[in-house]
Design a protein that fits this description.
The protein is mainly alpha-helical. It contains 22 helices and no strands.
């Protein structure tokens, strides 16, 4: 058996998986670019920019664009920490196995409970918002009924693709990546080069945003323009057992997702701002134009061009839902594989034919569809239902960062083939500091809200999800079913992997010496 870390292809991957206590059930048919495409389409700068363009401008004015840079740098630090963790623990499910092996099973349970609900709610929100684009593409009024039907259709299409297997998932993710790049980079460059109406200095002009109040508070309030954009890169690690050479490729895919996504989002956002006529830009900042991008597109591309862009956008939304479902289903599978959920045997079932967790996929399709149905009956509930999603994801991220730092302070030296060496501790501390700052900004009440519920809806949503999870954890004790599965073993596993590699290196040198003699 080829030892982990040697160039033995799938054999080395399976050897490291076996060393971690698991037997592979998936097909390792996903390469670097397909893995990066999965994370990129989950991150989806097109969806993020379109969703929050008018909102962020109305709060912070054109300087809100700098949050894309700030958050991009912060999340790059987080991605570097994740890279070291996944390189040592290339296990399906990402957040769950990482937190379990870095801390313990109870910690992993509550973190994963929050994260899975955040993913499910995010799937719902993306499908709902995508429904409006589908309606616009076919020239149909986006009534609640039409949005419901199109949202459910997006969920079903994504489920069918996911069910078809990892190879099909990889292919469609690459198509989604191409659509995203066309929709954000190509269009952004076109607007910047040929349809520019504003000078670049506009990004330092508040245009009256925030009124007479100090601009620092106003700028902080506009942070969502970046915070909403930079997550999804962890999906690269959710499918770790379906990637060839995951210890090297997944960290690279995560970093590429952040870098390419950041540049894409920056170009797209800048393109829309610079292509907006002065009167329209002022109306957006004043909150009078709440959906300005279609108007900008029609004036810049014409009716036919805007229709083509809508096709690209719909493809991007399908890919985003696809990636979210894939990530959520692998998390559920990993959770259930360790017997941590009710009906674990059913949830952990993997199709013999397609090698995908079919029942977990079904849950991540059906539950969002049911939430869509609830939103249909209560249209005003969507914002409240989805309010905690971004916060839940950031908290799950920082739970990994905190657990990694705790292990480092106890002497852990990451043993993956991809690691930061002596810089790891500094990066880990900075990533945690950034994460705490981001969480505070997300909990902070939105400007202009008056009622207690609306002011603190993000914190309330998190409290409900985390509270129910803790109640179930301490009453039903689901963690007791997996007491035999390793936990908190980062230092021990690292020592084992280091020893195996030293032995392999010594054996290779001995063989080389023998051949020379």
């Amino acid at each position: 058996m080829t030892p982990p870390g040697a160039h033995g292809g799938p054999t080395a991957d399976d050897a490291q998986l076996a060393a971690l206590g698991y037997t592979g059930q998936f097909h390792r048919s996903m390469g670097l670019w397909a893995n990066m495409a999965l994370g990129f389409t989950y991150l989806s700068p097109l969806v993020g920019v379109y969703s929050l363009f008018a909102y962020s401008l109305s709060i912070g004015g054109p300087p809100a664009i700098w949050w894309i840079v700030i958050v991009g740098v912060g999340q790059l630090l987080v991605a570097l920490v994740f890279g070291e963790v996944v390189s040592q623990y290339p296990l399906a499910g990402g957040i769950y196995p990482w937190t379990r092996r870095l801390w313990n099973r109870r910690y992993a349970w509550i973190v994963s409970w929050v994260y899975i609900w955040a993913i499910i709610v995010t799937v719902t929100a993306v499908a709902e918002f995508g429904g409006g684009f589908v309606a616009a593409l076919f020239g149909v009024e986006a009534t609640p009924g039409v949005v419901l039907l199109t949202a459910v259709a997006l969920l079903v299409i994504a489920f069918v693709v996911n069910y078809s297997g990892t190879r099909m998932l990889a292919r469609i993710a690459k198509v989604g990546l191409a659509a995203e790049l066309i929709g954000v980079i190509a269009l952004g460059l076109f607007l910047l080069l040929f349809r520019r109406e504003q000078p670049f200095s506009v990004f330092f002009d508040t245009l009256g945003a925030g009124g007479d109040a100090g601009y620092v508070g106003t700028f902080l309030a506009a942070a969502l323009s970046g915070l909403f954009l930079f997550y999804g890169f962890e999906a690269c690690g959710d499918v770790a057992e379906e990637v060839a050479d995951p210890t090297r490729r997944i960290p690279k895919a995560m970093v590429l997702t952040i870098l390419v996504g950041g540049v894409s989002g920056l170009l797209s956002y800048a393109g829309y701002v610079l292509a907006a006529p002065a009167a329209q830009l002022q109306a957006i900042v004043a909150g009078e134009d709440v959906d300005p991008i279609p108007t900008i597109l029609v004036s810049a591309l014409g009716t036919v061009g805007s229709k083509v862009f809508l096709v690209v956008t719909v493809v991007a939304f399908v890919s985003c839902v696809l990636s979210l479902q894939a990530a959520g289903s692998r998390l559920l599978y990993a959770f259930a594989r360790d017997r941590m959920l009710p009906a674990s045997g059913w949830l952990s079932h993997v199709s013999d034919r397609h090698a995908v967790p079919t029942n977990a996929l079904l849950v991540v399709c059906v539950v969002p569809a049911l939430i869509c149905l609830f939103v249909y009956w209560q249209p005003d509930s969507l914002a409240r239902v989805t309010a905690f999603a971004v916060l839940g994801i950031y908290i799950a991220f920082q739970a990994v960062v905190l657990a990694a730092l705790r292990q480092r302070l106890r002497g852990w030296r990451p043993a993956g083939l991809w690691n930061l060496g002596s810089a790891g501790l500094v990066v880990n501390v900075l990533a945690l500091a950034y994460g705490v700052f981001a969480i505070v900004l997300l909990v902070k009440p939105a400007p202009g809200t008056e009622t207690f519920l609306d002011r603190w809806i993000v914190a309330v949503g998190l409290a409900v999800v985390a509270g129910t999870g803790l109640l179930y954890l301490f009453t039903a004790r689901p963690d007791r079913h997996s007491a035999h599965i390793p936990e908190g073993d980062a230092r021990e596993v690292a020592a084992q992997l280091h020893q195996i590699r030293r032995g392999a290196s010594m054996q290779a040198r001995a063989q080389a010496s023998e051949e020379i003699r």
